[in-house]
Every structure is written in structure tokens, then in C-alpha cells.
Amino acid sequence: AKGTGGGTFRFYSREMNRRASKRLQVEVDLHRALREQEFFLLYQPQVDAVSGRVSGIEALTRWRHPSLGTVPPDQFIPLAEETGLILPMGEWTLRQACLQTRRWQEQGFNDLRLGVNLSPIQFKRSNVPAMVRKVLAETGFDPHDLELEITEGVLLQKDKGRSECLRELKNMGVSLAIDDFGTGYSSLSYLKHFPIDRIKVAQEFVREIPASIEHLEIIRAIVAMARSLKLNIIAEGVETREQLELITEMGIEDIQGFYFSRPLPGEDVLPFVRRSASR
Ligand code: C2E
Ligand code: CA
Ligand code: CA
Predict the structure, then answer these.
(1) How far apart are CA 123 and CA 104, in angstroms?
(2) CA-to-CA distance for 46 and 124, rounded, in angstroms?
(3) Nearest Cα to 190, choosing from 181, 203, 201?
(4) Would the CB of 74 count as within 6 Å of ligand 1?
(5) Coil, strand or helix: which one is 137?
(6) Ligand 1 touching residue 254 (CB < 6 A)
(7) Which residues, including other chains, have CB under 8 Å from residue 250's CB and lie 6 or more apart?
(8) 128-173: per-residue pLDDT in tens?
(9) What residues of the chain score a pLDDT lower than 50?
(10) C-alpha count within 13 angstroms, C-beta hemisphere, residue 126
């Protein structure tokens, strides 16, 4: 009996050690990544389905790991959030995206809008308006061309300064979008307490159509309520012609999804924007 128990214990503790040291390794790696500029951005076009033109781009972070290759954000953002590294990382992302997009604007696409994701941890642990103001000043980026994407969780955090914080961003001229709308616990009517400009219909819903009538109805309801609250709306995760048709029939004209484009490396963005403008 003694042998079995001890063995099990040793097994678990070895497993736990392994996990802890792997986590520690990734954390060490993340610090280095920030120092050595191993992060880079891809940009996914947002297309007006009626005119075919690119109206904006969303910056999406990637990690070029020296031995693992390109690591997607789901595999490092959670740890960056746990360790607080999301704060310098998030600031780097915003600065980088603003600098890059400004260059594209200077090359003739001066109304190109930039979307950047913010983590709830940034709101919890730092002064987001101060950080954004600093980066805008440093980069000379026009706040009216910036859309910050926040999750429903940010609205639900019990922080009495939260709506003032969002108001402060609005007063700077920045737009606010709710990312993955419908997957959290907030309701549309709840949104009217916050200065939100646009909602992004979660790709979890779009993915289910046309097969699921239920999801079709959910999107229809979101559109109707967004309209009554005078919020703009964009659908994410549109992959097929059929999804595009259903979505636009419901009155959503802004589309982000593989149907039009995957997230693109920087050098492919202007060619894509040019092609869409000349159609
Ligand atoms: P998100 O903000 O919802 O970003 C959209 C994700 O959906 C991207 O994945 C994009 O590649 C993917 N996507 C776009 N269109 C389609 C489609 O038609 N079909 C499918 N199957 N997928 C599509 P990605 O780049 O892996 O990003 C995943 C998540 O990581 C993002 O979800 C966002 O929450 C987070 N993230 C990415 N970059 C950053 C960042 O710089 N800061 C923070 N805080 N989060 C980030
Ligand atoms: Ca997003
Ligand atoms: Ca999203």
C-alpha cells in the first residue's frame, strides 16, 4: 500500500513540477520575446460588403519563437495576462500598429481605420487612457482612426471607475467596439450605460450558420437591438459565400473573415487595400 501511494504521489508531483517548469520557461521566454522584439503583427482587413472596399484593419499579435516557430495569441496571451507582461506587450502592440497604419495612411489611404485589442487585465492593472494618450502623442496617430476592441468582461468588471475610463477614451476621439459580442453575459440593453460605438458579432455565431436556425435568429436579434441603440455592427468569422449572403441580408455590411481575407503580414496590406479600392 505504501508503495502505491508513494508512487502516485511521486507521479503527480513530478507531473506538477514538469508543468510548473514549463510555465516558468514560457514566462522567461515571454520576457525575452519582448526585449528581443520577437512579437509581430498581422492585419486582418474589414470589408464593406456593398462597395467591396476595405474600411479598416484589425491588428493581431503573433510570436515568432526561436525554436517553436510562430505561436498564435491563444497560446501566450493568457500567460502574459497572468504575469502582467500583457501591460508592456499591449503598449508595444498599440504603438507598433499605430506607426504602421500611419505609414499606410500617408501612402494615400488616409481614412484607414485601425482596430487594436485590449485585455481586461490592462483595464484592471493600468491606466488605459493615459497609456493610449501617450502612444497617440508619440506616434502622431489620429485618435479618430483608432478603434479599441474590448470584451464584455471589461464592462462587467466591478470597478466604479470603469465607465469614466471608457468615457475618457471617447473624449480623446477614440472609438470603442465590443469584441465577440454575445459570448459573455452582458446584454445589449446593458450596453447603453457605456459609450460604445460598435459591436462585433462573435464568430462563434457566424460559424453555425446556415445550419443552425437558432444562431441565425440570435444574430437577427442582435442586429435589431443594435439598430435601436444606434450602434454600428460588424460580423466576424465569415468564411463562405452563403454566410456572407445571410449576414448582409440581415443588414450587416461590415465583414471581417476568411471569405475576404485572412490576417495579412504587413507587406500584403496595401496591395490588398489597393485592389479592393479599384474594384
Ligand atoms: P479576436 O479579437 O476575436 O480576433 C479574431 C480571430 O479570429 C483571429 O485569430 C483571426 O485570425 C480569426 N479569424 C478571423 N476571421 C476568421 C474566419 O473567417 N474563420 C476563422 N475560423 N477564424 C477567423 P487570432 O489572430 O488567432 O487571435 C485570437 C485572439 O487572440 C483574438 O481574437 C484576440 O482575442 C486575441 N488577440 C490577438 N492579438 C491580441 C493583442 O494584441 N492583444 C490582446 N489583448 N489580445 C489579442
Ligand atoms: Ca478582436
Ligand atoms: Ca472577435
Answers:
(1) 29
(2) 29
(3) 181
(4) yes
(5) helix
(6) no
(7) 219, 220, 223
(8) 999 999 999 999 999 999 999 999 989 888 777 888 999 999 999 9
(9) 1-5
(10) 19
Q: Which grid coordinates are listed for 3?
A: 508503495
Ligand found nearest the CA of 45? 1
Report the run of H or E that residue 232 belongs to, with start and end: strand 232-236
Q: From ligand 3's centre to the CA of 53, what distance in Å?
A: 20
Q: Which atom of ligand 1 is nearest to the CA of 238?
A: 18
CA dihedral of 31, 32, 37, 40, whole degrees rounded to 10: -60
Total number of residues shown for the chain:
279
Angle subtended by helix axes 162-171 and 128-139, to nearest 10? 20
Q: Give dist(CA 243, CA 174) in Å, integer.
A: 30
User: Relative to the CA of 180, which ligand 1 atom is closest?
Assistant: 3
Q: How far is the CA of 268 from the centre of ligand 1 (A)?
A: 18
Here the cell at position 245 is 449572403
Looking at the CA of residue 74, tell me the nearest atom of ligand 1: 30
Place of cell 503583427: 41
Q: Which-ligand-closest: CA of 90?
A: 1
Residues with CB under 5 A from ligand 2 (ion): 117, 149, 179
Tally of CB atoms within 10 A around 278: 8
Q: Which amino acid is at 217?
A: E
* DSSP SS3 for 173: coil
Residue pLDDT, tens place only, 36-72: 999 999 999 999 999 999 999 999 999 999 988 999 9
Cis peptide leading into 271, omega within 30 of 0?
Answer: no
Local structure of residue 227 (DSSP, 8 states) = H
Residue where the block lists cell 517553436: 68
Kindly give the interhelix angle for 86-106 and 128-139, rounded to the nearest 10 degrees: 30
